[in-house]
Amino acid sequence: MEIGVKKSEALRQIKELCGERATDARFECVLYSRDLAPVPALLVDPLFKTVPDLVVRPTGAEEVAEILCLAGAAGIPVTPRSGASTVYFDSVPAKGGIVIDLNLLKGVLELDEDGMTVTVKAGTTWSELERYLNAKGYAPKSVPSSAPASSIAGWLCMMGYGIGSLKYGSLLSQVKWAEVVLPGGEIRQVTADTDPPLAWFAASEGTLGIITKLKIEIRKRTPMKHFLLYSRELSEMAGVLTAVKDAKITPYNLHFTDEACVKAMFRQGISPGNVDSGCLLAIDYEGPEDELNQAEEMIASLVADNTAVSFLPGDVAEMEWEERYKSLKLKRSGPSEVGGEVFLPVSRLESYLSDIKRLSGRYGREMCSYGHVATPERIIIMTMFFADETRVFEYVMDLSLVKKIQDVGYRHGGYPYGVGLWNTPYLGRIFKASELEQLRTRKKKLDPKGIMNPGKLYKWHPMLNPFNFSLGMNVMAGIRRFMRGSVRR
Q1: CATH architecture for segment(s) 108-220
Q2: How many angstroms from the chain centroid is the CA of residue 357?
Q3: 224-416: which CATH architecture?
Q4: Contact status, residue 456 vs residue 440, Cβ threshold 8 Å
Q5: Domains of the chain: which residue ranges?
Q6: For 389, which of 1, 38, 281, 294 could close a Cys bridge (C-beta 3.0–4.6 Å)?
Q7: Whether this model's pTM surpasses 0.90
Q8: Would you report the helix, strand and coil content of the chain in percent, each value rounded to 5?
Q9: Any idea where the FAD-binding PCMH-type domain is (predicted)?
């Protein structure tokens, strides 16, 4: 009873602290109980409390610190949230409590043109930062493909790879320091050399503290050249992708689209150059003119030496670049898309896609794949298929195919990109046992009361343990395969 009183008193004090920027109205709190993933209530409600008791919108680190102090004293779970642009429930409560909405922490604080850095508030989106920098002749070194929704801090708290990462590295490598409010309410500026170090908060998914501002490296806004290659042969395009990736001049962006995805876009009338089959490779360079000219000569030579690969018109390549943040445009065939995002070795791309094609035929779901080359060794590849969340039973069965996609990725050396809640059954694939133990040690050190985003990243829910999860998903997949003749798209 005492704990309940402490909780209610803490919530009252937080409401008093934030005034109109705090709400416990059921209608508003329900809006924070999901992200981009349309997961049926029958899979969520028996296991998790996703509707928060309170939503607060702080205006700065000091207010965040006060909220965490009050929440910690009462043992109230806290879930940080900004763009909520993932499908893993990273920013959805698993145990109710408080959601801290960081969307009021917006804006650029300082542009250091001599040091080539910018200091920015955590809730600023990447598109907002990009517009600000572009107007002054600068640009971020890299951005997520969800830039219009993804926040600066949110992307660091994920894995931080996307457009530009192939050339400039992960976001972690570009951050000079971050201001973090620790679970006990202490405000720290963390760097590569502090205790705790900055690296602990990268890919921590809001489980170690709340980032309120960051100082990150930027680049000059330089000219760009865009190329879009087409081939009917997957093997030929995979070879060109590898050659471009390993060339002397590193592309800023290297994006692959498979044949199933091209066909789906053609049916919707949005295929680049009205291409109806085959696969596409978008190659984007930025830099000085002489470097761009060398890159163009290299690409032209590759195409000249490979009759199975050809250029699409330059204006089409330019348009694809302009559409770079609209990767979910296929959803217009909806009502839903379901899929798995895999951090895959580039060398296994062709074999992965071949297995996905077989999986697609086995279950009667057309599976489309596209991805960015994130590092010289890895590609972030999204494989998805259309589903109908309004047909609940069929939709639940469809969710089992996400595991089948991840299984294909695992066979080819890949693992899920991001953990959150729904990918916790794959922890053994994502981390070595020693790495997972190290993560849990960090959690105990910084958050001994376990209030920060509980239920995520470190351990699966008992009903999501790998054995139960695998068995359940495989049974559902068997039912789904039997149902394949009844599927409508």
Answers
A1: 2-Layer Sandwich (3.30)
A2: 24
A3: 3-Layer(aba) Sandwich (3.40)
A4: no
A5: 2-101, 108-220, 224-416
A6: 38
A7: yes
A8: 45, 20, 35
A9: 48-221
